[in-house]
């Protein structure tokens, strides 16, 4: 370049002649060092510095180097801002760059500052590039690596702080592919799968697809006195071994597993939904409370950012670290003894079944047990079934509010026809109670036709309001999804008649029926709860909000749903409760639940129910029983039962006897 070119200044001069005076002002409009620093910061934040110039090498080479430094480094690119620019000479400057890396889903950030030396050449500012401009102290051929250290997971506790779920020893049983020749791997995999009672062909395919040095887990088993697979059986299979470890588990394999959920490696779906909070291989809640309250239970993992030499995994320097923060225990109201008792009572029931127990004085859920016939479904809290004659508690409340008393005569006939549809009593209905009988006897003997004959005395809205006053259809925040029932507020003819006896479009869950019984016991509408009040407010699940706000719509609440502010306050009174208790006492004294008379402790009050479903003739039936004993309200449900008294009654008897012992 010529001397004239080197001395050239990009200068704008303005000459103004005024009053014979000549004034000249000059402005330097070339890019400043601050401009260059801003462009560099923006490019570093995008990992693409194509708009900047460098004193050695091309911008594309620097961009490629940034890609190599961050390869496999999972956080998003950093936020980069210019902290300041100091001019060190006419054509030199030093820029300070401030970096903020959002390294995880918590509020923790990795922050630091670096400096970049700038030199103006031919009106353009160039950066003296080195890796330390991007990461403080980073050397050539080093790259970034992020590792996390799991935090100690919080326990799940029950009533009085009793630990339910905690770290328990396990054995991860699988095939170590490095310990068995390739031709023998399929044979070993099938043999181990048969020993563990998992699908042999599926596991053999899994082993074949894994890397050559993989340890492929077939099953994680509890490593306790009840372990049936021995070390000798495992070691007898070539390449098979058991790796000791721990996992958050309940006291037994089946204990409240639908409610408590499980912990394990994050699924692909959970990783995708986590918005970067989870990676493949992370341990997290997979279902139930473990999933819904994972943020509280999991705590915050520790993090380490290291510089490693490219092509190795060895750390050359620690750039950032944060210690793990242990998770917080999740306190529930479950009574471990009653929960285990409920599961024991249902152990031999082949169809879906449930036992739900509440404490009327507080609304605390003490047990939410599902039978083996539920096949892992949450029947206790999420089942949706017609309640049958147990709904006559709500029907009777509506009748009482319209002038009925226990002595009011009702017409109990063998059958009643409404708009061409015939309604009958149960096949075992005692003949001596056909005719005009008082409401107390109609309730005790569960006379369908007697209640339907009184259908013109109450409107459908009356029934829906009475049910809502007892908790049916009123959502509540219990810390996990639950169905609270649905009673249509508008129905006529056969639909209204069916509602009188808990059929038609009326739906409840075992939880909602236990809530109804608890409300009778408390003398006011009970709001059920599974978590301590502070836990419910602070533990947000993955599915926020609730649907349903009263008796006209299905009420299903998600984990952190607040009680509906739209629900009409309950007008249920202690006087009404007293009358309903009298009627429920008559069911045990002279009606369909007489087998509960010999349960030790306070007198048992109950109501049985049978609900028809399906198109078979005769139709299949659900069996229900609700009971009150002291400060205990219980609902028992059997999906494929006979009568409430014959299928549900013995289960209720066994549960109440066990609870009293």
TrEMBL record:
Keyword Membrane attached: yes
In residue numbers, the region (Disordered) covers 536-573
Tell me which Pfam families the record gives. Answer: MecA_N, PBP_dimer, Transpeptidase
Domain named Penicillin-binding protein dimerisation is located at 149-307
Swiss-Prot/TrEMBL GO biological process terms: antibiotic catabolic process; cell wall organization; response to antibiotic
Chain ranges of the NTF2-like N-terminal transpeptidase domain: 42-133
- Name the Enzyme Commission number(s) assigned to this protein: 3.5.2.6
Identify the domain of life: Bacteria
Q: Name one GO molecular function term.
A: penicillin binding
According to its UniProt record, which protein family does this protein belong to? Belongs to the class-D beta-lactamase family.
What protein is this chain from?
Beta-lactamase
What species does this protein belong to? Arthrobacter echini
Q: What is the lineage of its organism?
A: Bacteria, Bacillati, Actinomycetota, Actinomycetes, Micrococcales
């Amino acid at each position: 370049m010529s001397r004239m070119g080197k001395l050239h200044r990009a200068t704008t001069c303005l000459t103004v002649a005024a009053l014979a005076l000549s004034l000249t002002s000059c402005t330097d409009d070339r890019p400043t060092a601050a401009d260059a620093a801003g462009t560099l910061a923006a490019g570093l934040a995008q990992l693409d510095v194509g708009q900047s110039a460098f004193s050695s090498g091309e911008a594309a080479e620097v961009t490629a180097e940034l890609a190599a430094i961050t390869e496999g480094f999972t956080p998003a690119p950093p936020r980069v801002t210019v902290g300041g620019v100091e001019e060190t000479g006419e054509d030199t400057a030093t820029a300070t760059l401030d970096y903020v890396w959002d390294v995880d889903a918590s509020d923790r950030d990795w922050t630091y500052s670096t400096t970049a030396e700038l030199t103006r050449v031919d009106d353009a500012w160039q950066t003296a590039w080195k890796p330390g401009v991007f990461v403080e102290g980073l050397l050539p051929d080093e790259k970034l690596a992020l590792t996390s250290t799991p935090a100690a997971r919080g326990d799940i506790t029950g009533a009085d702080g009793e630990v339910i779920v905690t770290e328990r020893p396990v054995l991860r049983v699988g095939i170590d592919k490095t310990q068995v020749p390739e031709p023998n791997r399929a044979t070993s995999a099938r043999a181990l799968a048969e020993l563990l009672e998992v699908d042999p062909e599926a596991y053999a395919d899994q082993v074949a697809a894994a890397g050559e040095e993989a340890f492929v887990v077939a099953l994680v088993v509890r490593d306790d006195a009840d372990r049936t697979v021995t070390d000798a059986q495992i070691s007898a299979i070539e390449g098979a071994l058991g790796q000791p470890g721990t996992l958050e588990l309940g006291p037994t394999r089946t204990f409240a597993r639908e409610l408590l959920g499980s912990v394990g490696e994050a699924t692909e779906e959970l990783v995708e939904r986590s918005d970067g909070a989870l990676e493949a291989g992370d341990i997290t809640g997979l279902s139930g409370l473990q999933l819904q309250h994972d943020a509280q239970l999991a705590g915050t993992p520790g993090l380490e950012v290291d510089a490693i030499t490219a092509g190795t995994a060895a750390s050359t320097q620690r750039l950032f670290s944060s210690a793990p923060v242990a998770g917080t225990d999740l306190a529930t109201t479950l009574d471990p003894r009653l929960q285990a008792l409920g599961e024991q009572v249902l152990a031999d029931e082949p169809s879906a079944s449930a036992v739900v127990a509440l404490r009327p004085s507080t609304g605390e859920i003490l047990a939410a047990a599902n039978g083996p016939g539920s096949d892992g479904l949450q029947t206790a809290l999420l089942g949706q079934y017609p309640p049958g004659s147990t709904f006559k508690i709500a029907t009777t409340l509506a009748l009482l509010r319209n002038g009925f008393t226990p002595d009011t005569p009702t017409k109990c006939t063998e059958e009643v026809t409404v708009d061409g549809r015939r309604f009958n009593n149960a096949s075992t209905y005692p003949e001596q109670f056909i005719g005009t009988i008082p409401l107390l006897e109609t309730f005790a003997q569960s006379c369908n036709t007697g209640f339907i004959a009184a259908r013109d005395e109450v409107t459908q809205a009356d029934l829906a309001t009475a049910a809502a006053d007892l908790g049916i259809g009123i959502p509540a925040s219990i810390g996990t999804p639950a169905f609270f029932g649905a009673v249509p507020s508008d129905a006529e003819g056969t639909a209204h008649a069916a509602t009188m006896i808990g059929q038609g479009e009326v739906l409840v869950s075992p939880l909602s029926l236990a809530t109804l019984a608890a409300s009778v016991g408390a003398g006011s509408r009970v709001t059920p709860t599974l978590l301590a009040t502070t836990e419910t407010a602070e533990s947000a699940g993955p599915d926020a909000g609730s649907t349903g706000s009263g008796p006209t719509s299905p009420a299903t609440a998600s984990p952190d749903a607040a009680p509906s502010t739209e629900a009409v306050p309950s007008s249920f009174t202690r006087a009404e409760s007293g009358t309903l208790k009298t009627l429920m006492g008559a069911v045990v004294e002279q009606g369909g639940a007489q087998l509960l008379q010999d349960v030790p402790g306070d007198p048992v009050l109950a109501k049985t129910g049978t609900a028809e479903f399906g198109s078979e003739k005769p139709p299949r039936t659900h069996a229900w029983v609700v009971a009150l004993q002291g400060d205990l309200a219980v609902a028992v449900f059997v999906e494929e039962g006979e009568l409430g008294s014959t299928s549900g009654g013995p289960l209720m008897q066994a549960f109440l006897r066990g609870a009293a012992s």
